[in-house]
């Protein structure tokens, strides 16, 4: 497993859909995950430090976990099938047992950023999922793949520069 | 406190906004609570018995509570201020202690319908909030209020008849 961070919450400029870019600059990769508008908005608000006047669902989940003496250990994006990502949230109970709860990546990441828990992706995800090389030297991709990746890189980093 | 049930998830025909109608036919009242599109969609899906392919936030909260040996005792809509409702979710921990967690009514009701927990409104809410008399004999409302209520009743029950 490789630890990743949220590089960006942005919009796919081709489809207009919101997406999270997860990445690890040392390991030289990034993974785009398309998510819902609502999940993207709540993630963005949290990353910007906005405090909602009333708890929204992810704040509520974090409050529930804390009230039941649980602690979010980590979040793992662990499956990629037919373009859909799956994830698990690992929560440490008061008795020390760690429970694994299936969740969508968008929900998992929203909880990770609110609790400070680390986010991991499995090697299988890195092999199977749509990847972007963050640095382009010695790229193993075909010219067609490189053109696609360049397009992806362009719209991801357009907003960053 | 008075126990209520979800009479309807519908749309306000004047504003187009989604709303929940909570009510108690024995006590002869109903309360409309305006909520978000996302929350209304997930509530409606649950009431229709739809099972999502992956857990959505409310399914996730219920799974988290169960994994941490909690049990939802009840949900209470307990405050109404400047047109906004507030609620609390009461969760029984494994050690028997009952914890109270602040939540929005839309989130609370979504969790109640998924866990089978009862929903209550306080007397204060019944006194302060926008109410609809389910039966109209001996109505304490002014003619103007009655006309407003008739409009509300009409669009609520239009879909039911």
Automatic annotation (TrEMBL), chains A, B:
Location of the BFN domain: 1-133
SUPFAM superfamilies: Hypothetical protein TM0160
UniProt xrefs under Pfam families: BFN_dom
MF terms in GO: nuclease activity
Matches recorded under InterPro entries: BFN_sf, Bi_nuclease_dom
Domain of life of the native organism: Bacteria
Family matches, as PANTHER family: VON HIPPEL-LINDAU DISEASE TUMOR SUPPRESSOR, VON HIPPEL-LINDAU PROTEIN
Entry protein name: BFN domain-containing protein
Species of provenance: Desulfurobacterium atlanticum
